[in-house]
Amino acid sequence: MKPENFETIAIRTQVERSLHKEHSSPIYLTSSYKFDDAEEMRALFANEKEGNVYSRYANPNTSEFIEKMCLLEGAEDGFATATGMAAIFTTFGAFLKNGDHIVSSRSVFGSTHQLLTNVFSKWGVTFDYADLDKPEDWEGLIKPNTKMIFVETPSNPGIDIIDLKFLGDLAKKHNQLLVVDNCFATPYLQQPIALGAHISIHSATKYIDGQGRVLGGVILGRKDLITEVMNFARHSGPSLSPFNAWILSKSLETLAVRMDRHCENALKVAEYLESHPKIKLVKYPFLPSHPQYEIAKKQMKQGGGIVTIVVEGGVEGASKFMDGLKMFSISANLADTRSIATHPATSTHSKLTEEERNIVGIEQGSIRLSIGLEHINDILADIEQALA
């Protein structure tokens, strides 16, 4: 029987069992592999035969993780990286060259912004930012040398959303490569490839692991595109370790049930804070007040686990609220089982200028709440006392 449902695929997909008939996949902590003879070694290195040659290229644990992610997201192939940023860097490095141009969503993660402004700019790659809430502006930014459209949706930390079907059609019209950072949604809530994206990227450090333990990333897409990614990655070396791949593959077994609880808790937090007098703004995809609520309902299964708020009183108000939290962790991470509060202006997006932050909706009073799996009554009680 071939499983068809998300939860079953995530649980039952695994590498071939060894002679020990283990129920759970073992960890293959090996850097290299033995060949039966000289001819097999030659054939493997010539790509005439499938198999493992070196763990910088592939490993049974990374292969299992990639296979699961491909099945869950509807991709033909994938490559696993050491971190989420390694996945973004590798994707840019594989497809962009001197003279190329990117159209990117303005609201991107701080390190992605640094790649565009300070790293790839040194190598002759230019970019233009477009606003997620102004889809009418995107087509006008495409130039003859534009090679890629890159987008985060929902964005970090503004929780802005754009219609992926619209971007897919736009990319097809102009023969562009559409790359989507799908980290906040996970394949459980959103499948960009089915909506027209060519590549979907995840920081597996976040919800894929979901417990704040290991770093990882993954690039998913058409087989010919992933071949380009592999050709770049095999020599630049951003490979995922076998141990982390094993953790991430096991974590996928609980992704669906975890995301259901994250989303349930986050919606209740968003609804509670929307009417609170000390909160200026609440952004959550499945709140009817969200500017792109209808788009979110169309392309996402649920709203995700991140709620972004703006506290009255600017940075002082934000600091007072965060320092008043007793259960929430103050951390730059997100997507943990534990609820986390982050002040983006002084942490994850501190390298942006204040003007750049304001343009993407990051105010001094903005706080990103990663809602965990604790009991909702305890989450709300902590928020309530911190706002008192």
Automatic annotation (TrEMBL):
Query: Which GO biological process annotations does it have?
Result: 'de novo' L-methionine biosynthetic process; homocysteine biosynthetic process; transsulfuration
Enzyme Commission numbers on file: 2.5.1.-
Entry GO CC: cytoplasm
Q: What class of enzyme is it?
A: transferase
Q: Which UniProt keywords apply?
A: Amino-acid biosynthesis, Methionine biosynthesis, Pyridoxal phosphate, Transferase
Q: What residues bear N6-(pyridoxal phosphate)lysine in this entry?
A: K206
UniProt xrefs under Pfam families: Cys_Met_Meta_PP
MF terms from GO for this chain are: carbon-sulfur lyase activity; pyridoxal phosphate binding; transferase activity, transferring alkyl or aryl (other than methyl) groups
Q: Keyword Amino-acid biosynthesis on this protein?
A: yes
Query: InterPro entries this protein is in?
Result: Cys/Met-Metab_PyrdxlP-dep_enz, O-succ-hSer_sulfhydrylase, PyrdxlP-dep_Trfase, PyrdxlP-dep_Trfase_major, PyrdxlP-dep_Trfase_small
Q: Which cofactors are required for activity?
A: pyridoxal 5'-phosphate
Catalysed reactions, semicolon-separated: O-succinyl-L-homoserine + hydrogen sulfide = L-homocysteine + succinate
SUPFAM superfamilies cross-referenced by the UniProt entry: PLP-dependent transferases (SSF53383)
What do we know about how this protein assembles, alone or with others?
Homotetramer.
Q: Which family does it belong to?
A: Belongs to the trans-sulfuration enzymes family. MetZ subfamily.
Could you tell me which HAMAP family the record lists for this protein? MetZ
Q: What function does this protein fulfil?
A: Catalyzes the formation of L-homocysteine from O-succinyl-L-homoserine (OSHS) and hydrogen sulfide.
Instruction: Write the protein's name.
Output: O-succinylhomoserine sulfhydrylase
Report the gene name.
metZ
